[in-house]
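Model the whole thing, not chain by chain.
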Amino acid sequence: MKVWIRRLFILIVMIIFLVAFSGSYSALSIDNLSTVVAIAIDTSDINKLRMSFQFTNASSVSESGSTEQSPSIIYSIDCSSISNGVNLMNTYIGKELNLSHCKVIAFSEELAMNGISEEVYTLFNNAQIRPSTNVVITKCTAKYYLENSKPLAENLLTKYYEIFANSSKSTGYTVNATLGEFFSSLICDSCEGYAILGGISSEDSESTTGIDSQKDSSSKANSSSLSGKITSENIGMAVFKGDKLVGELNSIETLSFLATRNEISSFLVSVPDPNDSSSYIDIYLTPIIDSRIDVNIVNGSPYIEVSYSFTGRIYSMKANSNYLDDDVLDKISDSCSNYLETVFSNYLYKTSKDLESDINGFGKNAKSKFLTTQDFENYDWLEHYSDSFFDVSVDVSIRSSYLLTET
Amino acid sequence: MSNSRISVPEAVSIILIVLVAHTLVSLPKNLLNVTGSATLINLLYVGIIMFFLVLLMVKLFKGFAGQDIIDISNFLGGPVFQKIVGMIFIFYFIFSSSILLRNFCECLKTVYYPMTSLFFILLTFIIALCISNNFNFSVTAKINLIILPIIFVSILFIFFANNQNLSFENMTPILGNGLFDTFVTGLGNLGAFGGIVFLYFIPPYLKEPKKFKKVAMISICLSIVYLIICVAIILLTFTFLLKVDEIMPLYSAARYIEFGSFFQRLESILLLIWIIGMACYFSITLHIAMNIFKKITNIRDSKPLLIPFALLMLSISLLPSNYSISKYLETDIYPRIVIWIGLVLSTLILILAYFKKRIKTLSHNNSQGQNISSTISKKKGFIGNESMD
């Protein structure tokens, strides 16, 4: 009898829990969900925001096979807030939007200039959105950016979104800016935020004619030399002060940013040839050690010393080159050091004097010069950053070229 | 009781699971709120104080081998005093675990069960701890011993997997919110060592009561190290957590872990491990509370108390009308209760009982000495009389 009662009790408990937890199960069930892969947020003429949600059509992927690109569907809605936008979209599509696979959040430049803290706080408050979601500021409308996000060398859009920012590690021309970092920078009293700069390549490039390798490294989204099929491009980065967009960095400046923050594993630069002032040598550089940053407060202004150390190999080759000669290698090393000192110095002064935004997070290093948090807050680092002076030193050691050493 | 005896590692794991349970919900953030960037220094400071407090406890406990604080209060003030102290500690255990249960379930609801009533999430834990308490205490202790190292590994994993975000500059300004806040107001961080309170109840459970000192020393050292690692994860990796309050900061830190595009969302596995750890903690607290009740009421078996105590825990966890209140109870009230009930009251009882015992021993020795001397003098007198005769 006792066993029978116990079994009945267990059965009743199981039924109760089955019913109780079914609500959450339905909320997370794949049949009831519509998976969003990217969100675009623009300004709207008829409401505060225009939100666009990008979905992938899973059934079309399986039908078309792996050789064709998966189609994507974009729905837009005008709304007063992100939460309302999601809510309205849930009603229209008859399913619940699931944002746990959303990999890109694109804001239009126009919206970003007015401030996006409310949107970022709301997105970060959502348990479904991952902190690793990339934040893109688009030079065109964010919706147009999503519509044209057709990967050139990838079939699956979701996979493209997953990996597109990874090129920052090897090229340094774009940055892997995430929602988590952006949110952190909004609260941070010693650093400012940044995002990926996105745009759409046009069929007729804006670039002027002429051979200039320096032009390659000064490109940025919407003004790159990429031509052909219209597609999205992510070159350069968007710089914020507080929650407002204040400027852009081109590819070489983005590279300087990544080198300063030690977020690059290797990169290619074109430096003036010491033997021929009209030509350039391409050098593949790898940081030997992390950049060293020392911040001091001199007469109330930040004095920032940054030293970099790289080792490199010569990538480009032409006739009558002799890269076995120590003197030649030393000359190229010096030329490269001088070139990078100028580039890094220009970049740092641009962030300080023009943009007045400490995206490098030098404030974190400055904190060690203060005894208490109160002292640091009283100093108001973010306001004083525009008074900064920089001392940049770059040590480059060119080892050799690659397969050919002497021609 | 003989089946409920536990070994030294099991005892240490019981002390540590208390700390672990609280760190999984909000303890590291609470510590950071008080002392800011100087929290690691503060933890070393309060850790040293706590170490000496535990040393004192061990010394005072020497005279009371195999007894817990309830037995000692009986010795100190008799049965009435024992009952008062017992009720205070029952309140302490039930209140602290109920509030933690509520907050942990609130977090689970937010993250995984948005449409499920909080009551059912709480009920799941209550049923789990009713089932586990049907077995011997040593069973829970053994499971706890298995799960605790796994939780430790998960915490270390969060620390090392987030190494790309590590920034030692976050430890500066070195004095955080100031000298006073670090070393005076920061004494409030003693409340983090709630696990040490369990040391007062461990001696009767030990297979070898002589090894109490070993249990205490290992527990306090591991507690300090563990707390430092937990705070370092938050302090060195996520600056924004100093200013923003996020549910379960360690869970939030785990959300950042990704290994390429292949291994993502590892926090789900970690949360599963932590849920088992939490269930162990609730089970242990419930058992100790029941055992105290059993002692103060002189009942033979504590099993019939299981359902009423579990329901009491459920009821208290349902009392706060919203998360704000339960959070306040956990972050502001719990540390104070730990300090005043767990550390001050218990240590006072121990000190007074120690002196009472010494006085008793001395008076006993004196009376024995008097007896001996009177016997000797009697004998002397007898011998003298005999010689006179």
